[in-house]
Queue: 2 jobs
Job 1
Amino acid sequence: MSFQIDFGGEKSPIVGIDLGTTNSLVAVMELTGPRILSGIVPSVVSVKESGEVIVGAEAREMLLTHPERTVYSVKRLMGRGVDDIQDELKLFPFQIAEGSESTIKLKLGEKTFTPPEVSAHILRKLKLDAEAELGVQISQAVITVPAYFNDAQRQATKDAGRIAGLEVLRLVNEPTAAALAYGLDKRKEGIVAVYDFGGGTFDISILRLHDGIFEVLATNGDTHLGGDDIDNLLLKIALEDIQSEWGIDVSKKSDAVQLLRRAVIDAKEKLSFVPSAAIDLAYGGKTYQREITRELFDKLATPVIDQTLGPCRDCIKDAGVAVDQIDEVVMVGGSTRIPLVRSAVEVLFRKRPHTELNPDEVVALGAAVQAGILSGDVEDKLLLDVTPLSLGIETMGGLISKLIHRNSTIPASATEQFTTAVDGQRNVLIHVVQGERELVKDCRSLARFDLKDIAPMPAGFARIEVRFLIDANGILSVTARDTRSGKEQSVEIKPSYGLTDDQVEAMILESFDKAQEDFNERQVREARVEADTILAATDKARQNDAYFDLTDQERSAIERGVNELLVVYHGDDHLLIRSKIDQLNEATQTLAENMMNTAVRGALKGTNVNG
Amino acid sequence: MLYYEAFGLEPALSLDPDDLKKRFYERSRQWHPDRFSRASAVEQEKALEMTSTLNDAFRTLRDPIARAEYFLKEKGIELSKEAPPELLEEVFELNMALEELRDGDESTRPQLIEARNRFIAMRDSIDQTLAATTDLDQVRALLNRRRYIKNLIRDVENVLPN
């Protein structure tokens, strides 16, 4: 039995969730430290023909049989617009539904889903797994995001949590979470770099440790760079091979591509431990095999790995530290198992990186530690994180005026004065962008804020003070005040990407019904499993001599019990099923006792014979 | 002055960086929103307000230049946007050289590298003088000059890669 923390009566634990590109995990903080609950859940979602949504390992199998009803690596789409994902569409079999101009919608069989809804299905599965293991309802979570995620990507992740019925108490950056999990604070003072190379994202963060405070000095990364990219390079070679060997182009056959992708990943993973591995494919009565040596693999992977080194150098520079001041380097994410990644990091940082903890689990463990900080169970640690990207507003001529610079500790704020340009002007539109470039067109549009209902007055007279605030989750909010009247100025937000609040609300309502349904379904399924067990046992007992020793009355009570249970078995009332199980249990009590006695007698007799 | 208040400090041009850092960590531990995740909405709002101000203040006060600019602004002293007269001739020549390099005349490159290094040396020397200056008029003049030189360095570096 696991030892549960007393969260003070009615309070249920806050779970920590790593919502990864390839795999997701849930963990919880216990007295002995953070612990992973249940297992790794592949971040794959599939919709069966019946309309049932399945998640995880089962859905990953559907990738092979029903690729058109299945989606993976959806994290790559979070908080993005259809224009930004053109490169992704060439490499990933995302099926974009019509009407995706403002918000991406994915087609899975007959249904369409936004990326936050797909992620919500993964989160709901993790929530149910955690509830099953802990035996309590879970309603609050810490979810991790890549440190380099922008505002829209963070907001989309938070939306996913809400749709899944989770109150997201904090979004925590993955590398920072990993630093928490590593227990690096045993070292009272020091500088630590966390290199986090996952399936689809890359992050580098440099932290200063000070007496339990984890202060992020700088972060950098690429939210579209990961092991997936190496897979795609291998896949391309294999597809070309097959084209020349078989004379057919299988790249349009999505089931073949998925089989091949699986074979490529197998080979890639093996190559971390052996000098050579084969890509094997059997498809349509044909077979393909290609031996990949570590040497060839390294040659292919080098450009991808090199792309991580630039952000590392920039991050060291931004942190204002010299390489030899960095005391420790921590490796996170499945792609850091690749020997070439480890040696590249070792060369850059001039020290051997830490690889003691499972790179797939360390982020979820750290999320659980952060959950412990929020619940008050962990008192000696505190994370001070930064915003990865500068925040600015559009000024004249498409230029940007930066208000909050990247690597500012969050929460962070900036205040700016606005006025009107024409007599009687009633509103002012503020365009907020995120990024490091000088021109609006090179940055990421976040949202347009409309200051509405300004009292009519001559041009330049209005005095509106706008406050931009980035909270501890790295998410922006904007408030405005009319400094002449001191009144709150109304602001209408038009997010450039992602869902409006109303859309999220609608999805929550829908999923709330779903959650109830899920819950019921699970109860019914569990009751049926129990019914199966007792029905099978009763059936077997009826062959036993002891059954015939029963009175007619006792036998008919058992018959009735079986029949009544069978009648309710296919209904959807789990309470009724359970009451009939109890009834049958009672009716078979004498039979069970008699059988036990006979068995004991038999066993004793056996002893006598042998003795 | 709000930023000094956030640290419980009296407004002053110079301060002890180690003491500032210590106060920053203490106050972060006390007020960070992580400490209030199960508190009431009002308390959460207050924690957010306190820490965002603390962080903004720390960013400004730990940097001697940003601190001096903040201090002057709060005192109602504005920086001028005009070029310091003693630099005018140099700036004129610099702009010509920049123009020529942009037009592809490589011969001005050594001159620009030399100018950049000289400006960087000027900036560093201003920073040193500033650290020892308490007279507000002098601080203002130094900051004006520094801001102007900083822009010159930026302009040269935009044209000279590395």
Job 2
Amino acid sequence: MDEFAPVVDAVNGLDASAMRLEELLHRAAAFLGEQVSTRTARLYATEGLMDRPAKEGRRAVYGQRHLLQLLLVRTLARRGLSLSAIAPLVVGSDTELTDQLRLLDDEPQSQSPNRQRDEALAFLQSVRSSPVQFLGSPLSARSPSLRSSRMSGRSASASSRWHRFSLAPGVELHLSESASIPLPGERRDAWLERLFNRLREQLDVE
Amino acid sequence: MKPQLLFRPLRPAVAADGPTELDLVLSVRVPGLPPAHHRTALNLALVIDCSASMAGSKLSHARKAARFLAGALSSRDRLAIVAFDQEAAVLVPSQHVRDPHPFIGAINSLSPGSGTAIFDGWLAGATEVAEHFDAQGLNRVLLLSDGQATSGLQDADAIAEVVTGLTQRGVGTTAIGLGAGFDEDLMAAVAAAGGGTLGFIESQQHLVEFCTSEVTGLLQTAAHGLTFQLCPMDGVELLEILNDLPKCGEAEYQLPNLRYGQEFVVGLRLRLPAWSPNRDIARVTLEWQTPGGQRAERLTRELTLPVKPQGEVQKLAADEFVAEQMALLAANRERRRAIELHDIGDFTSVLRCLESIDELLASAPQTEAVCRERRLMEGHQKLIRADRNLSRKRLRSESLRSSLSIWESGGGHG
């Protein structure tokens, strides 16, 4: 789903009251381009990611709000957010849910060909210009730890003993081999807390 | 056609009255043939080692392979030719293959130099591919080397990390080691990081055969960027995954690209407490991209099995395919131990390790694949005495079959 504004408009224009679960999932699938199983939807309801359905007699019924919640949960999950990270985002008012979906319009998941090309070229450029010819890939479990990288990720031709780690898109850490990192434990925790406070001070100044 | 995900347990039930150690195979395959009306465009860079060791017949065969590539591609495809010795040179910048002659002319002019700047060569080729990134096609660097890196960045982990970074941005890498002198650990790390094929070409005559297979494989790619996430349910413990799959997140593993009709199996061993009927054991989510697809697609399957008394479960017939695959995967993994022993020069223990692999295979159903594997073991026991370098290269290649797309001479992709 590249464009959310039309989707939000379409959802808002739906007569989406008193749907049965199958109909809710059918409508969600039309917007998402993927099927959502009843088991998944019930899991979302159990986990608090979707409001409990209303009752009409013995029948569970769903409305427009459920549809907005389901679209938001699936879209964010596809972007890699965990369910626990998504949970706080789906408890707002209908207007807030709508705004969340509109916001996603500004950062489409699918990348334009030029953007993909630019990202690949920018990455290669950063590799060329890196002082130690070593650059962390986007942070993931595949990335080596800081400690192991300091031991092994080193350019044979490097004259400088600095290492760069990509912590998040647009955020890098430059670490000198001479930096003294305390061993794991209370001293390490206190050291990290001091770094965190320094970072927060820098951001607050801006 | 989308990938299919299938659970195949060794025995089709778990125990109601006691713990179960459950061996099962997770099969991922894309059925069918590539759509006849659609051919994926290829955006390739061939990066050729021109160090002194390539002089003579190796370079001659590299020229032949490059000429084949230029001839096999169409005007929709792009190709760049990069050569490297102690530095890299772009011989033909990336362009559509409307006429193979400019490529062939440049390839014929290749002459060997000194030094082996593998990373610089890769970087030049990767830049050519990235500059003409084709979101609808497949973008890949084909890196060919016969030696050890002697210039520029040489650390395999550091090179692999950069290659991984580019793979995550849509440009993959295939690594081709030629002859007996290349660095199999570096080339394996590059192919694993690049999500591409690993080709160990012992005889240069097989180079064109490899290129044919690679182009065919690329054109038949049904899914790339494949990962699977395994979530054992409450009480279920994942004992081991028999494949050496790169991890790319919490309980998330990277799989090689899949071609139409190809099956990839993952061997799992789970431990369950006494189980109740209709209760999910694990959930597996597969994620992939199709060539030209703009976003990842996803498939989730839950594993549920019938529940029986423990005594009855043990009496159930074992699935021969699962037994075979588990034995083959375990044999691949054990080769890593043989390589470790090889590296410390303890060849007596290497031989003992090879014997224990054969014993493991002897206890599995004697299918064609298992018998072939036992013949390989027999060959290794002789080769370790005659040519330790070649023996190590073969062991490394075979050990990676359960995590990478490996090209095997005469047998195509493994």
